[in-house]
Design brief:
Layout lengths: L1 H10 L9 H26 L5 H23 L9 H13 L9 H8 L1
Helix pairs in contact: 1-2, 1-3, 2-3
Amino acid sequence: PAKEGLSQELNKDAATAGKTDASKQAYEEAKQQAQEALNKADEVINNANASETEVNEAKQKLEDAKQKLEEAKAGLTDVNKQPLIPAKEGLSQELNKDAATAGKTDASKQAYEH
């Protein structure tokens, strides 16, 4: 059951577009650890001589990896675009203002207009 639960969680790919780099990295690391826990569980399952301790350790790793993966998925954070808005609006306002071109050289007027 622990292995199936982790496999299902791994197959539910989270949308990482528009998320912060740090939260995406944490999610990818959790996915990698989860895959490693699954691989270890397969090794133990396929080992006819596996001890009870090995089975319990593999099960615990699966449960821990699933929890970390769920936490990383929940921790995916949207990129904060708020600081960009006032800067964009400020530039937009400047673009909409006409510069006083009276008395300026033709070359400087042309440079301003292009």
